[in-house]
């Protein structure tokens, strides 16, 4: 069974930002914790603005693990730009009664892998 969180990242990676945002509740609240700072926002328009403002790269989220506990879903993996690992992410989301993402939080770090992969992630 594919989890919503896996589908969300796959949709982002296809570059279909409008379809990804359609997976969100209209008043989604989100927090992106990245090396340059924390970006918090609300609403589909806020998420679309964040996504479209990112620099164009060949970004892919490569799942190492994903899990669900009721209406909560979690994922961890690498982020690549082309063939280069640029860092590691941990994402969590809450689904509302309609199965839409109403809360989303992700952290991204260039060095720290939650689950070390062979040859990647210093975890120092």
UniProtKB/TrEMBL annotation:
Source species of the chain: Rhodococcoides trifolii
Gene3D superfamilies, alphabetized: 3.10.450.50
Pfam families with a match to the protein in the record: SnoaL_2 (PF12680)
Name of the molecule in the record: SnoaL-like domain-containing protein
Domain SnoaL-like: residue ranges: 6-103
Cross-referenced InterPro entries: NTF2-like_dom_sf, SnoaL-like
């Amino acid at each position: 069974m594919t989890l919503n969180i896996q589908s969300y990242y796959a949709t982002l990676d296809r570059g279909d930002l409008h379809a990804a945002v359609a997976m969100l509740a209209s008043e989604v609240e989100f927090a992106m914790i990245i090396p340059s700072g924390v970006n918090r926002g609300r609403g589909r328009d806020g998420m679309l603005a964040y996504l479209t403002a990112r620099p164009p790269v060949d970004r892919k989220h490569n799942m190492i693990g994903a899990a669900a506990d009721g209406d909560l879903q979690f994922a961890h993996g690498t982020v690549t730009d082309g063939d280069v690992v640029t860092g590691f992410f941990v994402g969590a989301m809450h689904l509302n009664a309609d199965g839409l993402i109403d809360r989303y939080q992700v952290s991204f770090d260039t060095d720290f892998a939650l689950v070390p992969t062979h040859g990647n992630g210093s975890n120092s």
